[in-house]
Amino acid sequence: MSLPTISNVRKTTVRAFGLGIVCGGFITAATIAAVPAKADTGDAVYAYTATFGAIVCQTLDTYPTFAGVIGIGEAIAADGLSMHQAGQVLMLSATEICPRHLGLLRRYADTYNQVPA
Hints:
Layout: H1 11-33, H2 44-62, H3 66-78, H4 83-96, H5 102-112
Helix pairs in contact: 1-4, 1-5, 2-4, 3-4
C-alpha cells in the first residue's frame, strides 16, 4: 500500500496528529480500565467527542482512507483543537462509537509515527 501524497500538510503536523491517535488509544485504554468516575466536562477532547463523535464516525464510513483521517483531523483543528487533540478525538470516537475504524487509525499511526533513527 503506497502512502498518499500530502502536499499541503507538513510531516511534523502529520506526525503530531498520528501521535495524538496513539495517545488517544492509551487514554481510552486507561479510561476503560479505570474505576468509573465522572468525566471532567472541561476537557476539550471529551467534550468535542461527545458532541461530534458520531459525525467523525460517519465521515470515516464515507472516507475510510488515510486522506480521510487527515481531512477529519484538519477539520477538527479548524474548530480550534490542536492536531494532537484531533488525533485523540478520532481515537476516542472510534473506540467508543465506531470500533470498526480502529484498524484504520492504528495503521495510520503506525505509518506516520515512525521515528527516524
